[in-house]
Amino acid sequence: MKVFGKNYAMVYDSLYKDKDYEKECNFIETIFTKRSENIRTILDLGCGTGGHALILAKRGYEVVGIDRAKDMLKIANLKAKQKDLTMNFIHGDITDIDLQKKFDAVISMFAVMSYQTTNVALAGICSVAKKHLVPGGLFIFDCW
C-alpha cells in the first residue's frame, strides 16, 4: 500500500509545523503514569519523521520507530543526529513486522490507524502491537 508520494516526506514537517507534538507526548506520559510505573521502552508504529519518537527519546525513553516510508525515516534519522540522540528507526511494514523484541508500550499516533484501508491491515497493526508488548504493556493510538 502506498499512501503518500515521495515528495510528501520533504514537505511533511512544514505542513504540520503547528502540530503540538510536545503536548501530545505530555498526554502519552500522563497515560503512562496512570497505567504503569515501569514504562522505559516504546515502539512507535508509523513514526514518520520522528515527531513523537524524538521527543520521547529526549525525555529518556528507549524508542524504536518503524515506518514504511524510507524518505520519512531519512528525515527522522537526520533530526535524531542533529539532536544528538541515538535512535533506531527501522524501515518496515507495521502490519506484519516482527522485531523479536518486547516493549513496555507501543504507540501509533497522528491517525496512522486511520490510514489503513482494510480490516486486515487494522488487525495486523493490533497483532504487531500485541506481539511486541510485555505482559501488561500499553498500546496507545489515536484515530480520526
From TrEMBL:
Q: Does the keyword Chaperone apply?
A: no
The reply on keyword S-adenosyl-L-methionine is yes
Which InterPro entries does the entry mention? Answer: Methyltransf_25, SAM-dependent_MTases_sf
Q: Which CDD domains match?
A: AdoMet_MTases
Write one Gene Ontology MF term: methyltransferase activity
- All copies of the Methyltransferase domain together span 42-137
PANTHER family in the record: METHYLTRANSFERASE, UBIQUINONE BIOSYNTHESIS O-METHYLTRANSFERASE, MITOCHONDRIAL
The protein's name in its UniProt record: Methyltransferase domain-containing protein
**Source species, please?**
marine sediment metagenome
